[in-house]
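Quick note —
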Amino acid sequence: MHHSLSPQTRFFSILVPALVAGGVSVAMMVNVVKGNADQFTWTILLFSIWVVVDHVVALAHPEMITINEEHIALSSFGRTHAYPWSSVRKLRIKRLASGTFYVRINDGGLFNGRYWIPVHKFPDHLALSQSLIDHQR
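Predicted structure written out below.
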C-alpha cells in the first residue's frame, strides 16, 4: 500500500524546515567567514546543518511510504530508501506523544534506517499505523 502526505503537509512539515535550516546555515557560515562568529553562531550553525542532513541527506522525514509484500520503501526529495522484507531483521517503533512514530529498521544509523513518521498527518493514518505495527519485529 502506498501512503503519501498531502502537498500542503509536505511543504510545511518537510520542505520549509529544510529550506529555513539551509538558509540559516548559509547566514551563519557568512558570519564565520567574516570573523563574526561567537558561541551562539557556532551553535546555530551546527544545529541548522544537522536539520539539513536529517531532512535532505538522511531522508529521516519521509513524505511517501510504500509497504507491500516485498518491501518497505520510504521516499523524500526524489530519493528512496527501500528495504526488502527478507533483509529486515528488526523494525522497531516508538510512539511519541506528538503522534509521530520513530521507526528504526535493522540497526539504523545516521544516514539510513531511522525515520520520524508523523502518521497522524497522513490521510490514511489508521491504515499506515496498522501496517507499520503489523510489520514490527
